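To: structure subgroup
Subject: Chain for Friday's discussion

All,

I'm putting the inputs and outputs inline so they're searchable in the archive.
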Amino acid sequence: MDEREALVMKFCLAMLLVAGTSLGGQSGDRVYTADQTSNTISVIDPNTNKLLGSIHLGEDVPAALLPLYRGELLVHGLGFSPDHKTLDVVSIGSNSVTLIDTETNLVKGKIYVGRSPHEAFFRPDGRELWVAVRGENYISVIDPVSRRETRRIETANGPGIVLFRPDGKYAFVPSSFTPEMDVIDTTNYQVITRVPQVSPFSPNLAVDQDEVWFTLKGTGKTQIVSANPPFRTLATLETGPITNHVTFVNNVLGRFAYVSVGGKDQVLVYRRDRFSLPKLVATIKAGDLPHGIWGSGEGNRVYVGLENGDAVQAIDTATNQIIATIPVGQLPQALVYVPNATSSDKGTANLKPLGPATSALHLDLLPPDKSRSKAHASVSINSLGLIDNLQVAATGLEPRQTYRLVLLGGDSSSPQDLISFTAGIGGVAIVQTLGPLKRVGASPQTARPMKLEIRSDLPAPEFVVLQQAGSAVSTP
């Protein structure tokens, strides 16, 4: 085949991919999000890009904080079994892994593990479920049949996630607190290599037979390591502040990595050639604070959760354009795409509506006029009944400097401090607070409408770093 014929073939294949994007996948495919504040799992049909309903694993705050509360708290991590019939859900606050039947959307069982687990994934043979216990220093190995812990594998402090090479020979565990990614030999459960991370705080990775890509959230980088001994670092990419998750997509156009960058509201697309460094080929403007991300089974779609947008966006990989925005529960974290999750076309058994979990306000905080600062913050205020949960994601701050989120206006004649926080080593911060805050910026008819600011005592007392821009945007 000469060069011209090769180009014609590539063009034809690309057209086939474009033609195939009218559907997100096969009948029975599902997209799931772990909704941290509403303690729900949102279930999406990728063929229609519609929310089918949610699986309620717990109550909203403050009910979830009561001493007799028995539901799940801070639903955060997601994985699924090799046969695609079991969803595993990690709840950070209740130290639990919940197993859900994807056919019925019912809970099959629950396993309690150590302090603050983060993510859990099945081995490729399905015989074990490995849980990264981030609040401690080990992987908890679970028998999914007996639902009991069978062993612990000691790792660097703060294992963030564990994923396996497709052949199951090695497991890769980056750390949230230690600048080290551990490589585990799955035949003897031993750490065989400790790969230096450029920085700590790695929440996510993607693995194939050739490479491991793991994100470094605090410094805005993505590190690439060979998936084969001696597991050397191949490259480190400057992806941007609050680099969250990464997923691999293979289709007729090539091999790609999609990276969600929360601080810039972007999804970056890199071409992954086997014999050269990754090349950035597209920058997709996404919604508010993109977080969890996963590709469809056929590689024609990528789905990304918007942490501060309470939604999921669908990306057409042929054009790298957003083609749908789907409302989900509060503060979606992990997201997975599960092919053939259900044999039913409807697959809505036992699902419930989201209810008040979809009520939110979204704000932007920008530098004052004439400021040269590049700082920015997005704010999401979610209804929790009589009170609200406010989350701020800020970038461009001074590393290790202390800031205050301040409320002005309303019935108070003086500013009210809502929360104090310290920016991380990359100048980023994600903080939360509770209170009756939904009125912020949403009551222009009042004489003194309430506004938010971020202040610092440096370089001068009560120095305004960021202030609320325009009016709040409400999502029903």
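Points worth raising on Friday:
Residues 5-13, 15-22 have pLDDT under 50 and may be disordered.
Residues 377 and 473 are 14 Å apart (CA to CA).

D.
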